[in-house]
Design a protein that fits this description.
With about 850 residues, the chain is of the alpha/beta class. Among the domains are: about 285-425, Rossmann fold (3-Layer(aba) Sandwich); about 720-870, GMP Synthetase, Chain A, domain 3 (2-Layer Sandwich), CATH 3.30.300.30. The protein contains 23 helices and 37 strands. Strands 1-2-26-27-29-30-25-24-23-22-21 form an eleven-stranded mixed sheet. The protein has an eight-stranded mixed sheet with strand order 16-15-14-12-13-17-18-28. The protein starts with 12 loop residues before the first strand and ends with a helix. Its EC number is 6.2.1.3.
């Protein structure tokens, strides 16, 4: 049974026999659409279009277009660059009739309030709302219809957005394909459409013929914000285009815009605002938005001169820096694919990515990363040049960053501008390579619209302050979460992005946080765990009255945040005192004193870690998404969260729970404009991930509660099916075990096609800061736990040598407590062992985002596993 989109209200929740569907989008109201009448005004009541819309009727001499529109949620004065893309420009409307004739373009100015796409109403993007005001899109006189035209019916209206400098040349340009032509059968509308087309001016969720057979040209020259008509909703081809998943109203109806335009508008609105700040030789070096934009164009011209062809990759291998950002965007401007590569990748993994995207240019940070590329250079047939962005290259044929910039400055703008004119928002521009936890990395194709719409949706949802936000970049930029949080959202919001030092995750992050004091902060669970461990260590050394005050304050902080979870925003008695003498000081020490949004993402975080930060009045919440959804799909906010939940679906995005069981658990599916185009050159994998209706099948198992909060309970590919046929999601059991035993670093459940469950455990140990390799010495937190159970062990070897009876007994007790939480005997752990070395990225057990590579662990410790099940 196909999905039904009948959301009753904002945050609607619908259950059918086949799935549970949750969406944050408001209900589509087909009973009260806008329509155009012969007097040139818009009717807000239901219209049959009378004779003006019927086939064969006389066309009136004049039609004026007037639309209902909602103002930017942040107001006109503070709307971000995307909200002002159309405003302040002149636009040209091309009215198309079913007799294939086209009127002379009409042009007019658009004011900031009138930020809507011109459209005939065949599939209106907005339905009337009594809370919104009516504003004319253009003066009536600018939409006068030529009376000499033949009789006919309006099929669609194209809108061309023109810069003031281009108005004189507007007649020389081809018209932009209409947004209506590119409207797909999306999760919002597909299942509601009937097979028989309706009259184009009459509101309907059916699909007119023009959407099924869009007009196509051999060349499109109105980029970069144009839409090329497409028949498909997914692709794996480098030059492929897909239908835009434009909605009829609300966030998903936001006008599409390209990455080059997003940066250009940021440079125009915030020319002197610091966009990028990096510490070099002990001093912060700043780049303004105007300089940022100019440098991206210069490097784009250099890439073109160096041989970058359309639809070929620019691989970037290095730590976060302004050069990383500039190289990434320059690849997009030049019509190539920006492809970030994990710095932890082996040369072989780098080779796989380079071959997949036919990379012609590599941009590397230093000699260490350069050596990886040099080892595989002979196996990269598309490679043309390598650029090194820090230090002086010592290898012939490797270009320095400064030399590449100098080359770009020498080039004219002609070829770059030509490429920008051929660009479209529904083409791929960025590749995000998956971490490869279950197989070779896949190149996720993200379009301009994927990136810019997702940035817009998250800025509006989280109420970002234009031109005032401060961000800190330290997570790997090859990961979609970092790109969205550090590159695109700041660009949309006009924010300032500071770069941490390369050794941020080895110890310098804390000091940088104190200097930068970000207003929004996203960390992976391991970052929050390290802060937690340090705070706990300090707490253990606190005694007397200070400890008593801290304990009292934490109880108040936890109560205050648990009230928020219940939608009770009152403060407990004593909160003001606790805030003044404890919370404010802790936040200042951490560098989070002006932070208003604290997020954990990329992997699940333990509930006890969340509650600990809540007790410090740091309302840490989780954000959930994936590379294939351009990052965020659900988010927990301070005023809307539940501990253990991945949050609410972001407005404009859609969540479906496919084939739920009796408890409501099923596969989490995503729909919306943030869903990627597909996997580059991987047809089979693309079709597996994205179905025919545009739903992205995540492979995650989850449920949505009655309040709309998403809970992730496991992975389909990780699902354990015991010999007795019991289906078991391992993550919940593993998390329960780690909650009972704070000494445990990793726990991996075993039991697929086995008679019972067993588990591999690793203890928390110190790490070699240079190599990332785990050491034999136990961490301070682990040693404290050992002492609490009567053991003086300081290394894993000491624990296993005896083995240490106190530790073994304490671990068994913890497993017994976890087993009491199991809903059935089949879900109880019967055997366990401690692995003599913690899991790590260098060891291969963890991916770059610290996700457990279960197949690797099973293969690596197969003999240990088999001993569990010997007779």
């Amino acid at each position: 049974m196909p999905p039904v989109f009948n959301q009753e209200a904002l945050g609607g929740f619908v259950a059918t026999d086949d799935f549970i569907h949750y969406s944050s989008a408001p209900r589509l109201n087909s009973s009260n659409p806008p329509s155009i009448n012969t007097s040139g005004s818009v009717n807000s009541t239901k219209s049959n279009c009378n004779s003006t819309c019927s086939r064969g009727s006389k066309r009136p001499r004049q039609r004026a277009l007037e639309r209902k529109m909602a103002p930017d949620p942040r107001g006109q004065e503070e709307s971000g660059p995307v909200g002002s893309i159309i405003a302040g420009h002149r636009i040209s409307l091309n009215v198309h009739y079913d007799n294939d004739e086209e009127l002379v373009k009409t042009t007019g100015d658009v004011t900031p309030v009138e930020e809507m796409v011109a459209n005939t109403g065949a599939l209106p993007r907005d339905t009337p709302d009594s809370s919104t005001s009516t504003q004319p899109l253009l003066p009536d006189t600018l939409l006068t219809v030529n009376s000499n035209q033949q009789d006919g019916k309006i099929t669609h209206v194209d809108m061309v957005i023109l810069d003031e400098t281009e108005v004189e040349r507007e007649s020389e340009k081809s018209s932009v394909p209409s947004f209506s032509e590119a409207l797909p059968d999306t999760p919002e509308t597909s299942s509601a459409r009937s097979a028989t087309p309706e009259a184009p001016l009459e509101y309907s969720t059916s699909s007119p013929k023009m959407f099924k057979s869009p007009i196509k040209k051999t060349e499109y020259l109105n980029g970069p914000d144009q839409i090329i008509p497409a028949d498909c909703i997914k692709t794996w081809k480098p030059n492929g285009v897909t239908k835009l998943k434009l909605g009829e109203q609300g966030p998903s109806a936001h006008p599409p815009v390209s990455v080059p335009t997003l940066l250009k508008k940021a440079a125009e609105k915030y020319p002197n605002t610091h966009a990028l700040c990096v510490k070099r030789n002990g001093e912060w070096k700043n780049t303004t938005y105007r300089e940022y934009y100019d440098q991206v164009r210069i490097m784009a011209k250099a890439f073109i001169k160096l041989g970058l062809d359309l639809y070929h990759g620019v691989c970037i291998l290095g730590f976060n820096s302004p050069e990383w950002f500039i190289a990434d965007l320059a690849a997009v401007f030049a019509g190539g694919f920006a492809a970030g590569i994990y710095t932890t990748n082996t040369p072989e993994a780098c080779e796989h990515c380079a071959l997949n995207c036919e990379a012609q240019i590599w941009v590397v940070e230093d000699q260490k990363q350069l050596e990886k590329v040099l080892k595989i250079k002979g196996r990269l047939p598309s490679l043309k040049i390598i650029i090194q962005y820090t230090g002086k290259p010592t290898v012939d044929g490797v270009l320095s960053w400064e030399s590449a910039m100098a080359l770009g400055k020498q080039q004219s703008d002609n070829e770059l501008d030509s490429r920008l004119r051929r660009m479209a928002v529904n083409q791929a521009c960025t590749l995000i390579y998956t971490s490869g936890t279950t197989g070779p990395p896949k190149g996720v194709m993200l379009s301009h619209d994927n990136l810019t719409w997702t940035a817009h949706a998250n800025c509006v949802n989280a109420d970002f302050n234009p031109g005032k936000e401060i961000f800190l970049s330290f997570l790997p930029l090859s990961h979609v979460a970092a790109q969205m949080a550090d590159l695109y959202i700041p660009m949309y919001a006009g924010g300032t992005c500071y770069f941490a030092l390369p050794d941020a995750l080895k110890g310098s992050l804390g000091q940088t946080l104190k200097e930068v004091r970000p207003t929004r902060f996203l960390g992976v669970p391991r970052v929050w765990e390290k802060i937690y461990e340090k705070m706990m260590e300090v707490g253990r050394k606190t005694t007397g009255i200070k400890k008593s005050i801290a304990t009292w304050a934490k109880a108040i902080g936890l109560e205050a945040n648990m009230r928020k979870q219940r939608q009770d925003f009152s403060k407990p008695f004593g909160y003001s005192v606790a805030n003044a003498i404890v919370f404010k000081k802790i936040k200042a020490v951490l560098g989070l004193d002006r932070c208003t949004l604290y997020l954990s993402g990329a992997a699940p975080i333990a509930p006890e870690i969340l509650r600990y930060f809540h007790s410090l009045d740091i309302p840490l919440t989780e954000i959930y998404g994936m590379s294939e959804s351009t990052g965020p799909h659900t988010i927990g906010m301070e005023k809307a969260f539940k501990v253990g939940s991945a949050g609410l679906t972001i407005p404009g995005c859609y969540t479906k729970i496919d084939k739920p069981d009796e408890e409501g658990n099923g596969e989490v599916c995503m729909g919306g404009r943030h869903v990627s185009m597909g996997y580059l050159r991987m047809e089979e994998k693309t079709n597996e991930a994205i179905d025919g209706e545009g739903w992205l099948h995540t492979g995650d198992i989850g449920r949505v509660d009655s309040d709309g909060f998403l809970f992730i309970t496991g992975r389909i590919k990780e699902l354990i099916i015991t010999a007795g046929g019991e289906n078991i999601a391992p993550v919940l059991i593993e998390d329960n075990l780690k909650a009972e035993l704070p000494c445990i670093s990793n726990a991996m459940l075993i039991g697929d096609r086995r008679k019972f469950l067993s588990v591999l455990l690793t203890l928390k140990t110190n790490m070699n800061l240079d190599t990332g390799e785990p050491l034999d010495t136990l961490s301070a937190a682990c040693m404290d736990w050992c002492r609490s159970v009567g053991s003086s062990a300081k290394t894993i070897q000491e624990v296993l040598a005896g083995p240490d009876a106190n530790i073994m007994r304490a671990i068994q007790d913890g497993i017994d407590r976890a087993n009491k939480l199991a809903p059935s005997n089949a879900q109880r752990i019967q055997k366990w062992t401690i692995i003599p070395r913690d899991f790590s990225v260098p060891g291969g057990e963890l991916g770059p985002t610290m996700k457990l590579k279960r197949p690797v662990v099973v293969q690596k410790y197969c003999e240990t596993i088999e001993r569990f099940y010997e007779a």
